[in-house]
């Protein structure tokens, strides 16, 4: 039986195989449109679509005026999850692959805005849609390279008028969700995470330095107090082909 794949898919698969087998190395230029048209007897639209597939999969990146080049897809490291980690909506420490000079230099920026809870966030927080929340957007860098993006929501009914209303500043900044809420008498006892993957949106791709549509790992995390009340929820995204999530699982005695 003949190959039933669309021509653009056959071209993309062939190029992917050449990259995976090292025939086209990291940093090398993908054959030009004219070269691909000649090699595969395909139209402009077909080869352009094949290259878009490569970009969306993280195999290649376009450089304006120069061409399309093979991306470095080797994993950078792992975001190690444990109950003792703080100072991030993902609450992770970093383990770099091929680490030579100690831990990377970490930095983050955050912006908080009072807004109303969208329906899905309201459901996760157990509040009514439209209830006021503090929305904080984070951007994390490791050695000046994009690491993760996160958005966190907290009900203002719990934090407004307190010293922890702005997660990124004040006397309890950088103490994590548990440390901050403990300061206002709320004991956070557990968290729930849901991990999935999806294509990067255009703003995420721009911030993370990847192509729109490239696969990202998405972590939905919600913190609960001793009464099983949600007190904070967040969405975190990292590049799916560059970072792994590593979980420490304590099985007790």
Reported for the largest beta sheet, the result is: 6 strands, antiparallel
Helix fraction, binned, reads 10-25%
Tally of individual helices: 7
Number of strands: 11
Uncertain residue ranges: none
Oligomeric status:
single chain
Instruction: Based on Cα principal axes, name the global outline.
Output: elongated
For the record, the CATH architecture of the largest domain stands as 3-Layer(aba) Sandwich
> Strand arrangement, largest sheet?
5-6-7-10-9-8
Mean of all residue-level pLDDT scores: 85
Q: What is the end-to-end distance?
A: 58 Å
- Count of spatially separate domains: 2
The assigned structural class equals alpha+beta
Write up what this structure looks like.
With 253 residues, this protein is α+β, with helices and mostly antiparallel strands. Helix content is 24%, strand content 35%. It folds into two domains: 7-70, Winged helix-like DNA-binding domain superfamily/Winged helix DNA-binding domain (Arc Repressor Mutant, subunit A, Orthogonal Bundle), CATH 1.10.10.10; 77-247, Chorismate lyase-like (Chorismate lyase, 3-Layer(aba) Sandwich), CATH 3.40.1410.10. The protein has helices at 7-20, 33-40, 44-56, 119-125, 156-159, 176-182, 202-208; strands at 60-63, 67-70, 77-81, 92-96, 106-116, 132-142, 145-155, 188-199, 215-225, 230-239, 243-247. The strands form three sheets. The chain has a six-stranded antiparallel sheet. Strands 4-3-11 form a three-stranded mixed sheet, with no helix packed on it. 30% of the residues are buried. The mean pLDDT is 85.
């Amino acid at each position: 039986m003949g190959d039933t794949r669309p021509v653009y898919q056959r071209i993309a698969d062939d190029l992917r195989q050449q990259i995976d087998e090292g025939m086209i190395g990291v940093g090398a230029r993908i054959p030009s449109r004219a070269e691909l048209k000649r090699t595969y007897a395909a139209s402009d639209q077909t080869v352009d679509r094949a290259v878009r597939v490569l970009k969306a999969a993280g195999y290649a990146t376009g450089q304006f005026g120069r061409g399309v080049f093979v991306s470095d897809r080797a994993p950078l490291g792992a975001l190690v999850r444990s109950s003792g980690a703080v100072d991030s909506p993902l609450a992770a420490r970093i383990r770099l692959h091929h680490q030579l000079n100690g831990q990377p230099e970490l930095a983050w920026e955050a912006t908080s805005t009072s807004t109303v809870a969208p329906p899905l966030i309201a459901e996760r927080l157990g509040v009514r849609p439209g209830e006021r929340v503090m929305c904080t957007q984070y951007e994390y860098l490791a050695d000046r390279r994009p690491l993760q993006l996160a958005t966190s929501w907290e009900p203002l009914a719990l934090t407004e008028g307190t010293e922890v209303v702005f997660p990124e500043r004040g006397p309890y900044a950088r103490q994590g969700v548990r440390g901050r809420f403990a300061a206002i008498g709320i004991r956070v006892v557990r968290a729930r995470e849901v991990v999935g993957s999806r294509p990067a949106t255009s703003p995420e791709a721009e911030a993370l330095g990847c192509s729109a549509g490239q696969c990202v790992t998405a972590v939905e995390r919600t913190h609960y107090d001793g009464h099983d009340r949600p007190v904070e929820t967040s969405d975190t995204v990292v590049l799916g082909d560059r970072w792994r999530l590593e979980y420490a699982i304590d099985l007790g005695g």
